[in-house]
Every structure is written in structure tokens, then in C-alpha cells.
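User: Quick sanity check before I run a bigger batch. Here is a single chain. Can you write out its predicted 3D structure?
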Amino acid sequence: MIYWLTEYLQRYDSSFSAFDSLTLRATLAALTALSISLVFGPKMIKKLQQYQIGQTIREDGPKSHFSKAGTPTMGGVLILVSMILSTLMWADLSQKYIWVVILVTIGFGVIGWIDDYRKVVKKNSDGLSARSKFFWQCVVGLTASTVMYFFAQTPEGTTLIFPLIKEWSINLGIFFILFSAFIIVGMSNAVNLTDGLDGLAILPIVLVAGALGIFAYVSVNINFSDYLNVPYIKESGQLVIFCGSIVGAGLGFLWFNTYPAQVFMGDVGSLALGAALGVIAVIVRQEIVLLIMGGVFVAETLSVIIQVASYKMTGKRVFRMAPLHHHFELKGWAEPKVIVRFWIITLILVLIGLITLKLR
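Assistant: Done. Predicted structure follows.
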């Protein structure tokens, strides 16, 4: 909205052309989302406490978590509102991919909100049934993937790219729809599983989103994309603005979510943010890089799969508890130590992902 205003004002003052810069608007989007989060965060926490919208704790979880019962949850609403308002203010809304990302984020946010609402109102830690949650995630994911399939203007738009191996690529064709939906739904659930400790998920989300913003910036520039052998995706540039909004909103939320947390994001935040990362990676054709940079999310998901499979087949557990962060807690690691070490691992993985830009 503000971007359109600056376009109009360029008729009277050429200095407003500075707002054509994606870098400037992404920075302003991050600062706007950060400001919204910091200003309205305390008010939202107070309201959540007033309405007794508090976290329920798994009875089989680590005993150190029992003291967190009642901590305000559904704070992910603050993240989503900050992100979307900031994006609407600074992005060029005439471009199609920005709407795909916004609508997917809102769609998964609604699913998460229903899940959180049932947990809070019914005091049921299970929330929305796994089958219902997965069904609606697939509906949103498949719808978005189908739209992106028809948006693709070149074969590159539906080709799976393997980083580091220039000669390897697979044109997915119609299977792009299923593959993309798998990435979106999978990443949504992976982030959801990771969101189990104070601040554990939000900083990796911020780091990965920032890196995806760089990929989006490269993808929309035909010279950079040609030089770095990255698919040129027309109209993907506004994703840089959206990624900036995630960074700002995420850092603002971390202010209140850092250990000991004043508020949790809940499924409304984790499902939506995970899906947002997934759909951005699909648009800029960097799904494999996303799996590298989001290695912590992948490891958390695999730990659950391995634990369940092992217990069903052998009756034995591989980990003391799944997801993986609980395993380390039960080994005696203090919660802040688990969180910071997972942050460090994510930073390393994000840097590796960015290195693939040059090594192609």
C-alpha cells in the first residue's frame, strides 16, 4: 500500500524512486514488523493472561516443563499480523506470487488457530485430530501447488534443482504439484514439532527466512540468476519483502519468547511459518537447499518417525523422548543449552545453504 503511494509520489518528486529498491523495502518491512511486535506484544500477552489462554503441558513430557503450564499461548497471531501488515504495506501487491505466500500462510494459520482453540477451550493437549489437521493441510498445500504449477512460465519453474551438481535436475512436470505440497505440508509439521522449547523454533525460522530472501533476490534478477546458475523466476522479487517481514516479526516475538518465555507461538504460528518457508522455497526452486538450511527441523521430524517406527517394530525406543530436543533434555542438558546449540547448528547450516549459491 505504501509502495503504491511512493509510486504515485514519484510523479512529483523523483527521490521517491528509492522505494523501488527491494533491499530498502525489505529492510523497512523488517523494521515495521519488528515495531508492531514490540509495541503490541505486551498488550497481547496481557489479554491472553486475562482470558486465561494458557499452554497445556504433556503429562509424559520432561518434569521441568510442568512449571510452564498456563503460560500464554497462541502468540503466533502476533507474528502473523505483524508479517502480513508489514508485507501489505511495502510489497508490490500486483505481483501474483506474493499473494500465494500470504494466502498459504493465512490458511495454515487458521488450521493452527483451530487446533490451539480446542486445546485452550477444551483443555485437551491433543487439540485438532491429527487426521483432520493433515487433511486440511493437504487441501491448502495442494491448492497452492496447483496454482503455482499453472503460474510456471518456463520448464525451470517446475524443475527440481540439485545444488552443487550443475548437471543434475529433474523436470517434475505434473508431479510438481504433489512434490510441492509435500514440501509445504512437511515443513509446516517439521517446524511445529520443533516448537517445544522457549525460542527454539523462532530463531531458526528467522535465519532460514533471511537466507530464502537472498535466494528470492537472486532469482528475480536475470543477471544474478544467470551468473549463479539459479532459475530466473519472474515476479518472485516481492518474496524478499515477505522474508524481511518474517525476520522482523520473528525477532520481535523472540523478545517475549526467549527463555523463560512470556508467551508461546502455538500451532497458529508454527504451522503457518513452516508452510511459509516451504512455499517460498518452492517458488524460488530451492527445496533441497531448504532441507539443508532447515536441518534442525528435519532432524526433529526424523527423530519422531524413527522413534515411532522403532517402538512399533521392536518395542524399543531409540531416543529417551521425541522430538529430539526432549532427548537432550532428558540426558541432562539444561533447556537454554539445548536451545542455543540448536541455534548455532542452524546458523552453520544456513551458511552452508548460502555457499551453494556460488558452488554451482
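The beta strands are 159-161, 169-171.

User: Great, the batch can go ahead then.
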